[in-house]
């Protein structure tokens, strides 16, 4: 690592006495991710991805595998959807992966699967679990509990899909569980919302798939800051924590937030040295373990 980047991997702590709200990224920050980010079948190698799609289909209760999506079909649909949505106002579009799968299934003549939310949600979760397994970040659960106990309002601003809140729910509960096969994606999300509210302010939780816009584009942070201003919170009273210098630190700084780079997982740490936007961008804090933030509250 170049010497000038060494400070981004060493702890840098500040007093957080003036911070009222702490917003968090998910992948690479609250959880360790196999790919380092939110992933779908299109991120995996071709043969493995198609095998995962078939295996997850069977596990979800799909008996006839005729016309099921291939990884190429899903990838192409994602690319086409994002390109159609890209604009100056939304430079980094996001898809809703449920809608992507529905479109491909309908094109393949499998309307029966495209309109079966119970099977579809379980199927997609099965593929995601195979292609991008996640584990709780060491110390994250206890840090969340400590931040909440210290009276900080907690929220999430993250690139995500419908299954991401379930991952956070599992982190809160300190256990792993799969999406229940008998529940639709909508009912799963309602259950998740109820559990998330025990730790997070749901009005301060913003997931990219809901807005069809991802970080480092501005929309997620625009919505987050707008909601917080409505409750009397100023940007300088907000700390944003994430593992990506571009998507998290640079993007949050555009809106005047205090920032912390989470450098506790080398595999998912994204310094973005090749991006000019990050050349003179420095986080206010650097965390190499979640225990460190507890010291600053």
Automatic annotation (TrEMBL):
Q: Which UniProt keywords apply?
A: Hydrolase
- Matching InterPro entries, A to Z? HAD-like_hydrolase_domain (IPR051828), HAD-like_sf (IPR036412), HAD_sf (IPR023214)
Q: Does the keyword Hydrolase apply?
A: yes
What Pfam families does UniProt report for this protein, alphabetically?
Hydrolase (PF00702)
Q: Name one GO molecular function term.
A: hydrolase activity
**UniProt xrefs under PANTHER family:** HALOACID DEHALOGENASE-LIKE HYDROLASE DOMAIN-CONTAINING PROTEIN 3, PTHR46191
Instruction: Give the protein's recorded name.
Output: Hydrolase
Give the source species. Rhodopirellula islandica
Lineage of source species: Bacteria, Pseudomonadati, Planctomycetota, Planctomycetia, Pirellulales
